[in-house]
Design goal:
Transferase(Phosphotransferase), domain 1; 9 helices; alpha+beta; RIO-type_Ser/Thr_kinase; Phosphorylase Kinase, domain 1; two-stranded antiparallel sheet; about 40% helix; single chain; 2 domains; Prot_kinase_dom; about 290 residues
């Protein structure tokens, strides 16, 4: 099974920069003029220093992908880490005057078994082999497509580009400050928010033919007094064999949260509102296997 080799950042950052940029310069599309090359070099140096300070380690191929986004002028600079988890790191970046979120999947620690399960049931993808590289590229492509579809229908960040294990999307926040999660909000009109979220789930299902799959107060941000759905990596199309068990779980999570806010919510009623059908006991039993 193929796998990227994880290489810690060199103690001498100049050596690391030299090696990475030598590889980049071999690509014809990255023949940069001297001044721009100097500018990019300083941004790369700062990025590596920030990674070292945060004890973040990426394999060489991932670093090259991130640097190629600077060299190709897809991004202007990386600013800092927004969120760091077991399977992915989210950076804040800029593209001119616009902020971007850059999601980088950790090749060494991703749960490829779970990823494969969600991908293989999706008719949009056909994995002939189960190599780590192929799985993670398909996973990023899946999230990219899901975000593109969702952002046309509901309040969700628009995906801008994907490259290998890196996904670039719109940054949800205020002047570079990340928008708060729903779980951290106080004194909202909870009835109003439940209604908006309920309608968004229904629109996503009916118009987008998507189920979020990991929806909770942790994956909903609040911006301009509106909920914003994020993290569509586990989202599946409605034809997927796990779509309805995942939707039931989403309904349970949402109702559990809003009941704590004293909003009347029953997950079975929410599911029926979204799908127009009663819950199938077989689908509900499958939740334990997710």
């Amino acid at each position: 099974m193929s796998c990227y080799k994880v290489m810690p950042i060199a103690k001498n950052i100049d050596d690391e920069l030299y090696e990475l940029n030598k590889l980049l310069s071999e690509k014809e599309e990255f023949q940069l003029d001297r001044e721009y090359q100097k500018e990019i070099l300083e941004k790369e140096r700062k990025f590596l220093e920030d990674l070292k300070t945060a004890n973040e380690v990426f394999d060489k191929r991932t670093l090259m992908t991130l640097f190629s986004l600077l060299a190709g002028k897809h991004l202007t600079e990386y600013i800092g880490i927004v969120n760091s988890g077991k399977e992915a790191v989210v950076f804040k970046a800029r593209k001119g005057k616009f902020y971007r979120a850059v999601k980088v999947y950790r090749v060494a620690t991703c749960d490829f078994k779970t990823m494969s399960k969600y991908i293989q049931g999706d008719p949009r993808f056909h994995l002939r082999k189960s190599s780590r590289r192929q799985i993670i590229h398909a996973w990023v492509e899946k999230e990219f497509r899901n975000l593109r579809r969702a952002s046309e229908i509901i309040n969700a960040p628009k995906a801008r580009l994907r490259r290998e294990n890196v996904l670039v999307m719109d940054f949800v926040g205020y002047r570079g400050i990340p928008a708060p999660k729903l779980k951290d909000m106080q004194d909202l009109d909870w009835e109003k928010y439940f209604k908006i979220i309920k309608e968004s789930m229904k629109k996503l299902y009916e118009e987008g033919e998507l189920v979020h799959g990991d929806l909770s107060e942790y994956n909903i941000l609040v911006k301009d007094d509106e909920p914003v759905f994020i993290d569509f990596s586990q989202s599946v199309i409605t034809q997927h064999p796990l779509a309805h068990p995942l939707l039931i779980r989403d309904c349970i999570n949402i109702c559990n949260f809003f009941r704590r806010k004293r909003v009347d919510c029953n997950y079975k009623d929410l599911y029926k509102y979204i799908t127009g059908k009663e819950i199938d006991p077989i689908d509900e039993a499958m939740i334990k296997q997710l």
